[in-house]
Amino acid sequence: xxxxxxxxxxxxxxxxxxxxxxxxxxxxxxxxxxxxxxxxxxxxxxxxxxxxxxxxxxxxxxxxxxxxxxxxxxxxxxxxxxxxxxxxxxxxxxxxxxxxxxxxxxxxxxxxxxxxxxxxxxxxxxxxxxxxxxxxxxxxxxxxxxxxxxxxxxxxxxxxxxxxxxxxxxxxxxxxxxxxxxxxxxxxxxxxxxxxxxxxxxxxxxxxxxxxxxxxxxxxxxxxxxxxxx
Length: 230
Prior knowledge:
Layout: H1 3-16, H2 22-34, E1 52-53, E2 59-63, H3 71-74, H4 82-93, E3 114-118, H5 131-148, E4 152-156, H6 158-170, E5 187-188, E6 195-199, H7 204-207, H8 214-229
Parallel strand pairs: 2-3, 2-4, 4-6
Antiparallel strand pairs: 1-3, 5-6
């Protein structure tokens, strides 16, 4: 096995077996045990969820955390929930994914020049990891960024934006004070760091209220494509 592949496999194993945050461990396992009625026949993943995508991808999409009955059920980020439905359909339109749907780990989805991960690897209560939990998980994100070496990081939401800035800072880049603020369509170029682009999160709270439309997200991905090819 090539060194890069070996390192990715080792990192995935460390992520999947992590039990560092008692609150998150208890919640993800309770959800996996109780289940949702619509998924009562599923064997839930119920563990931390590693990133997923193409080795050496130039685009890294950074979300917040696995959904309780999405990735915490299926074991793959943004898979099996409405957020993933929106995200992968858009990535397919932008030629970053081979298909527009994502239902389970064996559905044939493959990413093209893209890698997707989350700042917190465990499903949190109320979709809200604590600052301490995000800090505990941060070394995993650092290692994913180091292994993938993306040209562009697309941060979905303010917490993902802040997590990316924290990772850049830990890697030695000067982020500055006050820190650049998150906004939909925001862009940030730092010496020695990937280009950072912001988008509203693809959650139902945004997509079903019209705060984030498919057209808006397509525009962001089109800009990402321009940055990648520039």
